[in-house]
Amino acid sequence: MSEKQDRIAQLERDRELLDTQIKELLRTEHRLAGARMRYERQLRRIELLNRFALAATGTQSSIDLMNLAMPMLFSLFPFEQAAAFTLRENDYLCPFCVRALAGREADSRERLGEIGEQHEISAEAPPKEPVLLGDDELGDATPFVRRVVEVTRELYAAPAPAPSTTFGASLVMPLVGRGKWALGAIVLRHDAPSLISSHERLPTEADMPFVRLTAAHVAAALQSVRLFEQVRDIAELKEAYASKVVDAQEQERIRVARELHDAIAQQLVAMRMDAEWISERLDADHPAHDVSHQLTTRLAQTIVSIRNIVYDLRPPLLDDLGVASAIKAYATQITSNAEIELDVEIVDDPEALPQQVATALYRIAQESINNAVRHAEATTLRVTVEDSGSAVLLRVRDDGRGISSDKLNASTSMGLVGMRERAALLGGELTINSRPGTGTLVSAAIPYARDPSK
Ligand SMILES: Nc1ncnc2c1ncn2[C@@H]1O[C@H](COP(=O)(O)OP(=O)(O)O)[C@@H](O)[C@H]1O
Ligand SMILES: [Mg+2]
Predict the structure, then answer these.
(1) Whether domain 51-233 has CATH 2.60.40.1930
(2) d(CA 169, CA 184)
(3) Separation of CA 206 and ligand 1 centre (Å)
(4) Atom 14 in ligand 1: which residue has the minimum CA distance?
(5) Helices (H), 77-207
(6) Would you say 321 and 346 are in contact if contact means Cβ atoms under 8 Å apart?
(7) Is the Cβ atom of 407 under 6 angstroms away from ligand 1?
(8) pLDDT tens for residues 95-133?
């Protein structure tokens, strides 16, 4: 063999080797490109999840949250219909559904919002894991899955496609919170998956770990919103309850006042007249004369006491008088027989106060003025009413002996406790500044929104 032939053969071998190496390289590059694509896709998905989680921390209602979740889900998975079902705690009803339509373009989504009617779902729990199923597999699904898919179809009222040509596909994502709290489910649907382009393929079993991760994100956000909603509901209930209690107290006072006035006071008046009648007919030296005279006087005193109690119990017509004038009238009346100098300053006489605010203010004034007259041994009593436009301010100051700190904080000081409660129930504040020897200042500030009907 000539040297030339040898070199040709060698070159031929080198070329073949190079060829295989190039082919190997190309294959590696292809694999790398694939891996890179998958990596970028995963990165984009995680980014979407993160963005959702961030935005979700600012939402305060389940519906708002679902309206955030839907666009994210459409970006993650190539479905075009979605419905969210949230379950109440002990029964599997659906208090609301959110539905959404993904358009082919990213931002042509529409019909995000609440659907008014409630849909009864199933007495059975949602599945523990996400379920991906075609409409032809619905028959084998659990009642819960079947029902939510059916409701989702109804929501879109899609004309039933000819069953032989296309089958819809659904992804049912259960939302399970901490402590296995079943919160609901999201259904993603496509009526005709065959129309989806190949690069937007429907999720497969391989995508399930990511589907689970997504569901966990939505569930965590939903759970914290639900807790927030519950706390808010409880606060609202408490407020409504508190104002009912105050209303009931007022009604009861009015009822007691009426009974006292109509039944007892009237009887006493009749008895006093009888006693007078007897007195007049008894000679001055008759043994019963003095007794019947005393009886008449005592009955007269009792009638005055009862009238005072009735006056205390029955709120004056605050609407007619205005709360400041009513307070002034009360203070004047109650101090008329006391050795105390009264100074009432009405900086403003607030108008159009809500009934509850006016009553609370009047009751607080009544109690603190009473206390000053009964307990303080004060020489002066100063009452001020001011209106800031969004709150009424009441100050009752005496220069008496002050309240000892144990009485000030005792839960048995029903008058003081009651004043604080009345203010607090209406979102106001009541402070009592008092030290033995320096006198007492009661200040109440009660916020209000102007009653437009007045
Ligand atoms: N302005 C005041 N000056 C001095 N002592 C007061 C004053 N207000 C309240 N007190 C004291 O605090 C106690 C508790 O007041 P309160 O809760 O209104 O109960 P009550 O008036 O029924 O005794 C009173 O018994 C009294 O000793
Ligand atoms: Mg009192």
Answers:
(1) no
(2) 20
(3) 75
(4) 413
(5) 143-156
(6) no
(7) yes
(8) 556 666 654 443 333 344 445 455 666 667 788 899 999
